[in-house]
Specification:
globular, 5% strand, 77 residues, two-stranded parallel sheet
């Protein structure tokens, strides 16, 4: 089920705010990505940024990079 862009962004930003206290940073980053995927109304460029985040996460990036990359994607959206 697709949710509105606003709902998805609000939830993703909430997950980002609690990133530092998350017990599993990779899972938190994956949750942010998962929220974004279920959003409706993305432009093609925004969809590309979301897809790129998902591909990047599958490459098992360093833990220190996770929050910054998620912040960058949310800022771009």
């Amino acid at each position: 089920m697709l949710l509105s862009r606003g709902e998805v962004l609000a939830t993703a930003r909430k997950l980002l705010r609690t990133f530092a206290s998350a017990p599993e940073p990779r899972r938190q980053a994956q949750s942010i990505y998962s929220e974004l995927v279920h959003g409706d109304g993305w432009t093609p460029r925004e969809r590309e940024a979301i897809d790129a985040l998902g591909a990047w996460l599958q490459g098992l990036p360093r833990l220190a990079e996770l929050k910054l990359r998620c912040e960058q994607v949310l800022t771009a959206l």
